[in-house]
């Protein structure tokens, strides 16, 4: 296991071994697209999903992620933008708690583009995370905001590295949909996004919110770890 103060970049460069990462919601469409596009030489994936693993069970999550280097949280129950199952808050709190208990230095949280109203733009007409108060699109987006805020709190308190990805539309067809504004992310861009985040040389306590989208004109994917979309949604 990588000590809390070390990074994926250090592990790959100095130990020349795969990062051990746990992915919650591993049987879902987003996780399936991600896992298919992760380099199996660099990343050893532990799949955490029902029926074998219930992320609402903290004891099981801690046991299942012992000696891991990073957690990627993609599990979500009852994906409905108008209501949020209470289990979802339990799950993301458990992911943070397991990371702290097991001294896992990096947590990547699957947030959503719904965390900010699509009509709320910066002065240049784009949508990006600014750290200022934001209006969510819906109750689903509001809960994702709370998940992000909790990550910032724990990054400050425990030195966790937390990256929240406001993921756009991932679909089995791996093709843009006629959404306005378009928020599609291709499968290979999703793989690149998470890989870059896992491999980044980040200081303890690093907190960042990044839009997980392919190239388009509205959502700004600005980030500190080198993600640059390969595919275009428009």
Distance, first to last CA = 42 Å
Mind telling me the CATH class? Alpha Beta
Number of domain modules? 1
| Spatial ordering of strands, largest sheet | 2-1-3-4-5-6
Corresponding CATH architecture:
3-Layer(aba) Sandwich
Please, could you describe this protein's structure?
By secondary structure, the chain is an alpha/beta fold. The protein has one domain (8-212): NAD(P)-binding Rossmann-like Domain (Rossmann fold, 3-Layer(aba) Sandwich), CATH 3.40.50.720. Helix content is 30%, strand content 15%. The protein has a six-stranded parallel beta sheet with strand order 2-1-3-4-5-6, sandwiched between helices. Strand 3, helix 4 and strand 4 (106-112) form a beta-alpha-beta unit. Helix 2 crosses helix 6 (187-199), helix 3 (58-64) packs across helix 4 and helix 4 packs parallel to helix 5. It is globular and about 45 Å long.
Lay out the secondary structure.
Elements (H helix, E strand, L loop, with lengths): L7 H8 L3 E6 L4 H8 L6 E6 L9 H7 L5 E4 L13 H15 L4 E7 L26 H20 L2 E7 L19 H13 L7 E6 L22
Parallel strand pairs: 1-2, 1-3, 3-4, 4-5, 5-6
Brief write-up:
Helices cover 30% and strands 15% of the residues. The protein is of the alpha/beta class. It has a single domain, classed as NAD(P)-binding Rossmann-like Domain (Rossmann fold).
